[in-house]
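Table S7 (text form). Paired inputs.
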Amino acid sequence: MDVDSDTFGASEEIQTSLYSTLKFGVYVSGAKKAEPSDAPFWGELMRASAHQEVLIPAPDPDPRVEYHPVDTGFETINLYYLRENQLHKVTAAKGGSVGFDFSKGLPKMTFEFTGVFNEPVDDPSPPAFDPTVFPRPLPFNNANTSAVIDGNTDVVLQQLTLNTGIETKFRDLPGDEGAVTDDRNASAGVTFMLKDDAAMRAFLAKSNSKNGVQKVAMSIQHGKTAGNIVKVAIASGQPKKPREADIDGDLGYQFDVGVIPVTGNDEYVITSQ
């Protein structure tokens, strides 16, 4: 907040609220644990980003861990990181939107957290770190990745993205101080072509909402071996804004996708196994 003066010149600024935001990315990879139903290393980050973690162990024929969006019971997390021998902390943090980007190279997840600011402290001795506990990320290619779009499996996929659209802000008012999650508006994007031209034309027709909104399901699986499989499934997506895309010289299409709840908190599911 600026302090006005009756003369020219710079004004003092009074800080009215103090908080921290932290943004970072990780590669998409699975749990690398003994069981496919063990939570992945990014599971706690998802839980603190307005998602419920559901463990589905054996004897289920398809053991896995699922992450579902929620609108109550939000969890918090404390985050620690070292910069130039200084330990930084963001405490009681809540996550905002989580981003998934499956495209050429190594697929990535991005996180953004808001929480209580803490003064950095000197810490010249960083903790031991064992990178072998994390599974190696897999490249986005035909051997590792497959997609199903509106029931079509003959998909040549260039990119699929999901943004969970979670809105988190910091509140500092008498009686309450901390991160607040107050809405979710998920969105996605997909660039692909279908080997069947008639099926591609049918999908394009579904992006025309003048005569009514049509919704489609789409999913992607990255990884083929238990312990390093991640799936994103969108149950009810509205394709819109089609435009042409160059897929290695062939004609493909890019769409924005509205990610719409069916009954509530069910518009997408993230799975690790």
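Next pair, protein 2 of 2.
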Amino acid sequence: MLTALYSWLTKGLYYPLVPLVPARLKRIQNLPPGPFDIWFQAVSVGEVAVAEALVGALLQMDPGLRVLVTSTTLTGLDRARKTLGHRVEVAPYVFDFPQLVKAALERVAPRIFSPIETELWPNMILEASGRGAHLLLVNARISPFSFPRYRRLRPFMAEILRRFSAFLAISSVHARRLEALGAHPGRIHICGNAKFEGLSRRITSCDLGPWFDLLDLSLERPVLVVGSLRQGEQDVLAQSLKALFEAVPSLFVLIAPRHLTWLEPLQQSLRGQGLDSQLLSELRSGVPRRASVIVVDEIGHLFCLYGLARVAFVGGSLIPKGGQNLLEPAAWGVPVLYGPYTSNFEEARGLLEDKGGGQVVRSSEDLTKTVLAVLSGSSGGPSGEKAREAAQEASGAATRQARLILEYLSARRP
């Protein structure tokens, strides 16, 4: 009853998107006809990273698989095309509009439809289930921010979740949340987070030499990389950087904002502390580097830039945004600092802190003190080698999930 009501409501909900429908549907209809073995839906860049790990593991086990990866956002789609387009089919995701969903499923005819993490589109789930596809929620997670909202909708969520054949959860915490929302406990498998898979392999694709040249950096110069900084964190960072440059004048800082829509407020905060900065794009255009703070105004470089760091701070964690991937700098053997709000990466934080490779900072004074401890090699800061150990220990989740996916691929629907 509730899902039928949702299907009716979405006819009006998606009406403003109707002009975009033909282009998205055309991309789906231009795909080779189904059946596809697996259809992964990844909302954006983070979920595409999971798809990359799963596709890599699956094709290693069965190179003949027919796989489709879709993404909702343009940035996710761009990354999927670059990293997966030579191995599998890639297309934009259709909106959760009943007629559009039916047309897409008619073309793709997936044996398995696998939303990634928390991609619960009711019309797609109901229609795919009705056509006999296995539904697997891979890298399944329910954030602490979403959980109370979903719990208020438990009857609706339970009706959706009962359509799934399996939930491949990233941890026991997320498994319990799924069960509380109505997922059948016998269908929940705890597999670990595939987002942490293959970080060591990704390092081999990074050529750091051109970065040293572009940034006019020497190997000896201490570098702090600030990754995925969110608006609202810049003042704490700027205050800390002022103190750090007073203590370590040779310090070099790279700041990669999570989004590129607030570069001016970021640079304004830096100027407010008397700090000059330049955009990375300026250096690319041939402008000589004059500043010791570079703001990365391009996407897709952060993982490789962590390889330049002596110490890293991962943003989205000083304010309640859940953090970002703490193990990316750790994979390089870089000590990792982060704020207290890391709910999206609880397992990674636990690993880092258990090993001694990561440390929480709560203020500009904390950040300054801990960066100085790392740079001086004192015992007051986390260890890069211990961070690398944590990243290595987190691997294996993609392989575990891929094996389960293949089991369901050969199984009949109950």
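The radius of gyration is 23 Å.
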